[in-house]
Amino acid sequence: MKQDSSGPAVRNLQKKLKRLGFNPARLDGVFGKKTRAALIRFQKSRGLVADEIAGPRTLAALNLKIDESITSVIPLVTTDIVTRMFPFTFQSSIETNLPFVLTALEKEKLTDKNLVLVALSTIRAEAECFEPISELISRFNTSPGGRPFDLYDYRRDLGNKGPPDGEKFRGRGFIQLTGRINYQHYGNVIGLGNELVDKPEIANQPNVAAQLLAAYLKDREERIRDAITNDDLKTARQLVNGGSHGLDRFTDAFRIGENLIG
User: DSSP 3-state assignment of 15?
Assistant: First the structure.
């Protein structure tokens, strides 16, 4: 809900704000300037982004029920739209794998436009073929003349303990999950336990790759939302990738989808 919205949901919002000491003046079900001002005061008091919108995080802070039928754009995300976001990708790959991604996003309640766009744009940046893939050898992961992925072997930030961890836990999936510590953590998060550590190749199964993508974004949801609210796509990309690799593809997909998804 935002300025110029109206209806019973706005009236409930106004009542809740007034009860908490943020008086919107009239309880008329019309999101006007005074309701907007009251909402901003509430958001600031709770450390939320003062974006003047009663979105999922603000409604949760108000302990108001979120109407998923209103916030979800999943029904609007069609193969045709995603194909236009991925102009260099076979439509057949999108048709095959998009349902897994949308199902995983719904499970994690990442169904609003911004988070859906971030998920799809992340796939464009990491796996433009819209298929789960494994990381290839490069100068960033393999030393000259060294074993494949030897630069990852002793990376403490990845939780790797030495050979063959670098190669075993190389990037995989839609999000290029990397490192023993991430395979262990997100394996537990999506209910696979140690199976993902014992059999890391299953991170490339479409349903598993989609769940890993959604779980990874869920962990960073609040900071990603803040970045998107400020139209800071570079920071949104860094929160997922840790750098700016693929930022051009991420930005292109996001802007195309922004115009196509209602």
Answer: helix
